[in-house]
Amino acid sequence: MSTSKSSTGLESNIAGLLSYLVGWITGLVFFLIEKDDESVRFHAMQSILFFGAVSVIQILLAILGVIPGVWLVFSIIGWLVWLFAVVMWIVFMVKAYQGERFKFPVTGDLAEKYSKK
Predict the structure, then answer these.
(1) What is the pLDDT confidence band of residue 2, given thresholds at 50, 70 and 90?
(2) What residues pair up with 5 in beta bridges, in sequence order?
């Protein structure tokens, strides 16, 4: 488990966990305030990218859900996306707390690229 301090004054693992707490919003906050710790910046950027994408997908599914005749299909897909996001939210927070750099496909690679100073 990581015990180094980030520039936020928090332990790196706690700052990483908090980056996921309210999805892309806390990810953005920690990405903007963290200047030195690449682990915290990685978790913050992954939170922005993953939960930002989930937000966009949910908005699109809600829009498509008003189409008569297929609304139920989009509602079910939206529920499954929400359930998957909740599971990943828990996984992200646990892994960050353990000091691990768990990379989700695509968003993890992009987060690694964009979190470098």
Answers:
(1) very low
(2) 11
For the chain, how many structural domains are there in total?
A: 1
Q: How far is CA 23 from CA 45, 47, 70, 80, 90, in A?
A: 10, 6, 29, 17, 11
Does any domain span residue 63? yes
Q: Is residue 7 part of a domain?
A: no
Query: For residue 1, how many other CB atoms are within 10 A of its CB?
Result: 9
Q: Which domain holds residue 76?
A: 12-114
Cβ within 8 Å of residue 25, ≥6 positions away: none
How far is 67 from 16, CA to CA, in rounded Å?
40
